[in-house]
Amino acid sequence: MKLNRSLLALLCSGMLAAAVYAEDAPAPEKKEAPKAEKKEKPKMIRLTLPYSLIESLTPEQKEQINKIHQAALEETKKIKDKEEADSMAVLTAAQKEELEKALEKQKAEKKGAAGDHKKSAASTKPAE
Question: Tens of pLDDT along 64-73?
Fold first, then answer.
């Protein structure tokens, strides 16, 4: 039994060594053929509620509203990032570690709950 394991370990290490030391041939360079210029399609913009309810918006209005929304999202992200950085600066090293563990636990619980939900959804499917 030990001999089989030893041979298996030796074989695996030999394969690993061969893979590490194997020389790769340089990949041939791909030459891209010049493509015919494509006509630009009008960009499909999905607006958020309530603006998506307005059917009479022009493409220009949709684009302006979308730009405003994207800028607002960026500002919101910057504010949240600053809040997190400022809050973390207040915590001690032990509190930061405690927070990290609590967040990992919460993430694991959510993952477990999602798995339980999938299992219960699968068991409640009607038989065909």
Answer: 999 999 999 9
Cα–Cα distances in angstroms (integers) from residue 6 to residues 1, 3, 9, 20, 47, in the given order? 9, 5, 5, 21, 63
> What distance in Å separates the CA atoms of residue 49 and residue 47, rounded to the nearest whole number?
7
Q: How many beta carbons lie within 10 A of that of residue 44, not counting itself?
A: 6
Q: Is 112 left (phi over 0), alpha (psi -120 to 50) or beta?
A: alpha
Among 16-30, 35-49, 59-73, the range scoring the smallest mean pLDDT is: 16-30
- Collapsing DSSP to helix, strand or coil, 55 comes out as coil
Hey, is 40 helix, strand or coil? coil
Flag whether the pTM goes above 0.85.
no
Mean pLDDT of 100-126: 79
Rounded Cα distance, 65 and 47, in Å: 8
Q: In this structure, which long-range contacts are made by residues 98-102, counting pairs with CB atoms below 8 Å and at least 24 apart in sequence?
A: none
Q: How many CB atoms lie within 10 A of CB 99?
A: 13
